[in-house]
Amino acid sequence: MNTSNTNSNDTSIVFNGKTITDIPEDLFIPPEALRVIIEQFEGPLDLLLYLIKKQNIDVVDIPILPITNQYVEYINMMQEMQFELASDYLVMASTLAEIKSRMLVPNEEDEEDEEDPRANLIKRLMEYQKYKNLSEKLDEIPRLNRDTFIISRIFANIEKKDTMPTIDLGELEIAFQEVLKRAEIFASHEIQSEALSVRERMSFILDIINKNETIKFIDCFTYQEGRMGAIVTFLAILELAKEGLIDIVQNQDYSMIYLQSVIL
Amino acid sequence: MSYSKPLNLIIEGALLASNDPLSLQDIANLFDKDKPSKNEIQKTIDVLNDNYKNHSFEIVHVASGFRMQVRKGYDDWISKLNKQSSTRYSKAFLETLVIIAYKQPVTRGDIEEIRGVSVNPQIIRNLIEFEWVKVVGHKETPGKPELLATTKKFLDYFNLKSLSDLPPPSELEVL
Amino acid sequence: MSYSKPLNLIIEGALLASNDPLSLQDIANLFDKDKPSKNEIQKTIDVLNDNYKNHSFEIVHVASGFRMQVRKGYDDWISKLNKQSSTRYSKAFLETLVIIAYKQPVTRGDIEEIRGVSVNPQIIRNLIEFEWVKVVGHKETPGKPELLATTKKFLDYFNLKSLSDLPPPSELEVL
Predict the structure, then answer these.
(1) Rounded distance, CA A199 to CA A214, Å?
(2) pLDDT (tens digit, 9 = 90+) per residue, A128-155?
(3) What CA–CA distances, in Å, run from A13 to A37, A38, B135, C6, C149?
(4) Is the peptide bond before B105 cis (omega within 30 degrees of 0)?
């Protein structure tokens, strides 16, 4: 089997508008581009397959010496570029080196039942190649939201109530604890009930702005809410501005202040 | 005009696949070039509707545009559908809802960061469909991601007057 | 059988209104009395599908049942809807998924051995979150690693009825 036949899509990347289809023979290429190329490989087996294909080598008969040299050269290049070398690559380099040494100095003692040291590597390469190809095929199968589209739940003239999930607040609490456990997002204890009101008010204001694009600053306040309400609203506006979600505009000093959506 | 698919089928497919009603403008915007005129789209919709006479669905014109819906008279059978959907009760569903409730307004990215996994779009779609969550704006970052917040309906469902009635995190942490 | 609506339109309406694919049993269950037989339902679906020849949608049979969907070929227009950019998956993601699909049940170790790199735990987490992959057991080896397998949802997503519909490995690759 000659793997070059299956050489369907090699590493091909676009850098600065130019398509780079090959590993550079020299280093006249910006280091960033090289990083991109290297990141194209899924691991040592992928890199090895690439090198074999590039040389048009029959995978069943890998000339281990040149491949090993190339591989090591390649890893040196990565090191030169100061990439963090995944240990997987180093393991593969040592495997290749071992195969090479065993082929150069055959171990006479157990030569009889010893198979070609390349056999195991070839098996792994072919196994990997098989799944690599299959994953390309899987990517081509018509899939939802790319090739075919699910018909969005069509509105039917029925009461929607019984389609609602039944969840009680307790379940929400449990879910919340799970989230807390996983990520200590609220570790700072900052979020008290007041902060939540601010969050709620932020959503409320955003929603209005979203519908009207611009609202008067004073229209955000309702006097019935009293001082606490005003403070919450004010904090919400400041928070929204801080997060860059709204713009606060005043055309001239002492004139009306407006809040507007950032995207116009 | 010539597209690789007939105009009527493009409109039909779009109405079927859309989550929201589509206005004539929305439909025109699906086309990069050779945009059909609004008049043309309206006529096509009328013809489609005529052809749906022998079907269980129709295109209706609602406030925000056109949408496909199942005709009246099928409740007996259809109301038995969608009683249970695994995505709705899943841990992922609840956690997503909780994060939106406590951290709103949030983007999908925020939720992903907190949960450490990508958000299943179906979950957001369901939450919006229940009207528990809505899009309140867009964040000014690349891709302008949608900002999600909970709604009054969400509060009503859980019998809460306001978000501050949600269990405060500090209390929970003692548990 | 006599219903106030024709059987074919009830099935059509139900498929349109459902969130999830419906099995023949699910469809039969919509009827309180005079349940149609599965055979009858299947035949009705076939006839419906024949009549959809000139439409942009069709009924497809996927792992968890029958589902209405917009045919292939409309993505140019429809992908502009719902602002949901169709997700592109990384090579690492697809390779991991493919190994689980074809070699299931597998452990992380198995995947690592084939790919020659450590598995990014994020990928497995995402696959489980999408409900494309689930833990089906534990291997009786030290550490009792989890055994991973694909789900019906995975097949549904790729429009497949069963694992045997996955593309076969091509001749070339077989030693």
Answers:
(1) 20
(2) 988 998 999 898 888 887 787 777 666 6
(3) 7, 11, 36, 56, 33
(4) yes
Nearest to B78 among C17, C77, C125 (CB): C17
Distance CA B24, CA A133 (A): 44
Assigned token pair, B76? 């007996």
Do the chains contact at C74 and B30, CB–CB below 8 Å? no
Greatest extent of chain B over all pairs of C-alpha atoms, in Å: 67
Beta carbons of B17 and C55 less than 8 Å apart = no
pLDDT of residue C161: 92
Task: Report the alpha-carbon distance of residue B18 to residue B33 in Å, rounded.
Answer: 21
Q: Which two tokens stand for residue B6?
A: 């007939």
Q: Give the DSSP H or E segment for C108.
A: helix C108-115
CA distance A101 to B13: 63
Contact criterion met (CB < 8 Å) for C99 and A131: yes
Q: Which of C14, C71, C78 sits opposite B81 (nearest CB)?
A: C14
Which residues from A are below 8 Å from B101, CB to CB? 172
- Separation of alpha carbons A234 and A199, rounded Å: 12
User: Which amino acid is located at A144 in the chain?
Assistant: L
Domains located in chain B, CATH noted: 7-78 (1.10.10.10), 87-171 (1.10.10.10)
Is the Cβ of B153 closer than 8 Å to some Cβ of chain C?
no
Distance CA A233, CA A216 (A): 13
Q: What is the mean pLDDT of each run of 10 residues along chain A (264 residues)?
A: 38 48 47 62 84 76 80 76 68 81 68 69 87 90 80 57 60 71 50 63 84 78 72 83 80 74 62
Instruction: Name the 3-class secondary structure at C61.
Output: strand
What percentage of chain C exceeds 90 in pLDDT? 65
Which of C96, C117, C114, C107 is CA-nearest to residue A127?
Answer: C114
Q: Which of A36-45, B58-67, C53-62, C147-156 has the lowest mean pLDDT?
A: A36-45
Residue tagged 């996994």 (tokens):
B117
Q: Is C34 on the interface with A (CB under 8 A)?
A: no
C16 at B interface, C-beta within 8 A: yes
Closest chain B C-alpha to C131 CA, distance in angstroms: 9
Per-residue pLDDT tens for C51-110?
A: 999 999 999 999 999 999 999 999 888 888 865 555 688 889 999 999 999 999 999 999
Tokens of C158: 């790729």
Q: Does C160 touch chain A (CB under 8 A)?
A: yes
* Closest alpha carbon within chain B to C54: B9
Q: What is the DSSP letter of B159?
A: T
Predicted confidence at residue A264, as pLDDT, reads: 44
**Residue B70 at interface with chain C, using a CB cutoff of 8 Å:** yes
Cα(C149)–Cα(B127) distance, integer angstroms: 28
Say if C158 is an interface residue toward chain A (CB within 8 Å).
Answer: yes
- Evaluate whether A245 touches B139 at the Cβ level (below 8 Å): yes
With 0-12 CB in 10 A as exposed, 13-18 as middle and 19+ as buried, what is B45?
Answer: buried
* Cβ-contact A77, A83 below 8 angstroms: no
pTM of the model: 0.67
Q: Cα angle at C94 between C23 and C146, to 5 degrees?
A: 75
State how far the Cα of A10 lies from the Cα of A234, in Å rounded to an integer.
57
Contact A176 B115 (CB under 8 A): no
